[in-house]
Amino acid sequence: MTEKSRTVLIMAHTGREGAVRSAKLVIRRLEEAGIQVRVLEDEAADIDCEGVEAHPAKPSAAEGAEVVIVLGGDGTLLRAAELTRGVGTPLLGVNLGHVGFLAEAERADLAVMADRVVSGDYEVEERMAIDVCVRRNGDITDRTWALNEASVEKASRERMLQVVAEIDGRPLSHWGCDGVVCATPTGSTAYAFSGGGPVVWPEVEAMLVVPISAHALFARPLVVSPHSTVAIEVTAESEGAVLWCDGRRTADVPPGARVEVRRSDLPVRLARLNLTPFTDRLVTKFGLPVAGWRGRVRT
Prior knowledge:
NAD(+) binds at residues 74-75, 79, 148-149, 159, 178, 189-194. By secondary structure, this protein is of the alpha+beta class. It has 2 domains: 7-127 and 268-286, Rossmann fold (3-Layer(aba) Sandwich), CATH 3.40.50.10330; 130-263, Tumour Suppressor Smad4 (Sandwich). It has helices at residues 17-32, 41-47, 74-84, 110-119, 191-194, 278-286, and strands at 7-12, 36-40, 53-55, 67-72, 91-95, 105-106, 123-127, 130-136, 139-146, 149-154, 161-167, 170-177, 179-183, 207-212, 222-224, 229-234, 241-245, 249-253, 258-263, 268-272. The strands form 4 sheets. Strands 3-2-1-4-5-6 form a 6-stranded parallel sheet, sandwiched between helices. The termini are far apart.
């Protein structure tokens, strides 16, 4: 009886020379271990490795793969999530960018990461995603999703966006603002964080609503139930708005339309090498000062 072959998909930010070098190193280590490697067709020429399967940039590229190794920054991992979420293949990010909050390993960890994949020494966790739709006159005109956030932003630089926020079918407040961010816990360290929202631990089930530069007495960031439905209505007298999801997918939101956000039934799966506390990740990624900490007093 023959052993079942193993397959790994490699996705890389091939516009960076370091990502291409990293991809070649990882491919070599995986192939030496007898693991079949795939890359995307539009990245194959830059990676230029013989014997590697090239697949169209479609969800089928990840079908049958046990993991997708993503070499780049958070933007590259979000692109990978867009491609693979439907087939459920876990993503293992290697940070070659700046902060890289979604990544599990750094450039210096490449060889160790590849060896851990070879030995199957990793775990998989699920991250909450959100479903997003645009409604106009009751009809859905656009439907999409996000791992980090959906942001409703003003389309005109000269004027504020006029919106009414709604939670579970009840109006909450009118805001004149630059936009509103509806984020997941994973996205709490992204756009929502820049807008003054709270950092939420990934295992917390919740949605964030963060008004951006709002001219209103009540415009605090909100943390709502994961079972809630959040809606942002663009008032009829307002200029139009633009919906952005993870900074990648966009849709127009004309005056009088609304954006509805709710928890998705389909999460994004991330491969984890190091089950370190999220607190440690915050300290490392943001370079937080912890000098003077003595730890728990032990008796």
